[in-house]
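Request: How about a record?
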Amino acid sequence: MFADNAKIYIRSGKGGDGHVSFRREKFVAAGGPDGGDGGKGGDVIFQVDKGLNTLNDFRHVRKYKAGDGGAGEKRKRHGADGEDIILKVPEGTVVRDAESGQVIVDMSGENQRVVVLKGGKGGLGNHHFATPTMQVPQYAQPGKPAQELYVVLELKMIADVGLVGFPNVGKSTLLSRCSNARPEIANYHFTTLQPHLGVVDLAQGEGFVMADIPGIIEGAAEGAGLGLDFLRHIERTRVLIHVVDAASTEGRDPIEDIRAIQHELEKYSVDVSKKPQIIAANKVDSIVTEEGEEDPIRRIRETFEPEGFKVYPISAVSGEGVKELLWYVNDVLKTVPKEAMFYESEYEYVPQVEDLPYTVVIDDKGNFVVEGPKIEKMLGYTNLESEKGFQFFQKFLKKAGILDKLEEMGINEGDTVRMYGHAFDYYRE
């Protein structure tokens, strides 16, 4: 099945933690700090692959994570950088934030390779914190957290001309007749599910890109069937060709079909409905007119040409009238601005406050006991015996919201706070 949109989870890599270590060499009584820096986390990168025309791959894999940065090591060795993850998408893919619907990036035009989420910066090793008064820093900097998002991918194909019409009117046959595209063609009574692009080459270097937009049905603008998915592709086109079964081989009225398609376009978007439109009255080779019956081509022309819609009778099977149609379309394209519809970015990533799970309870002696994995880890980084190390830990407690939580629970100056074997007297700043 053709996949026109997909919702996926993306996550960049976390920065590696800085390392705490000291030089240990023979005949050197007290080596200085030599903890290395953590590596940078990997980026999440979207890249256009011109060989793709669907988002099918994203239907099977929904989570994508870049590599985390490695921790720093002794002897000032830098942690390894995390591996980037590259997500290849068709040109015309719009990446939106799933929660707000805002456009993050439109993978079109110059946007062929874009970093959507940056990896976390690696933390500094303890050798960066050495000073004349603090020559043995017992702490290093943790790596910056990863960035994560749920995003929606929407494919809006890029073509000069879009073929629209009800299922089984000959759009795929016409595309294969006049371009290098080879869509699967059969007398199906249901719609093609996958749009196809083809390059139409005319003489003297003239030509354009044409897309077979899957058959639109009544109610498409309200989401009937896959209508909204298909209508998205029309937004990027500059000219529309209504392909209609002029011979009524399926018993449908071609005029009613054209009106129905026009109605769906208007309901979906006023801008789309105002695009230049040409009517290709297909299957003229199958027209059989009984004596006294009105010629269907004449009927279509008398109905729509007064409204400004040029009608070309064609046979996509035999090629009759196709050349004349294509040259007329080529002339119309020259009157339509070439600026492709482009979605400007409207989203700015706001880093989420890192989830720092902790608990604060009051024990039977009235002490405030604070525990949590991040707190325990930070205590391992930090030399609380030094003034600078203690200030470093204080800033962490404040940033993590732990001091606010203590105040909320009614702590008073002089009360005792316990954390993994450490006891502190609480005083407000």
About this structure: The first strand starts at residue 5 and ends at 11. The first helix runs from residue 57 to 60.
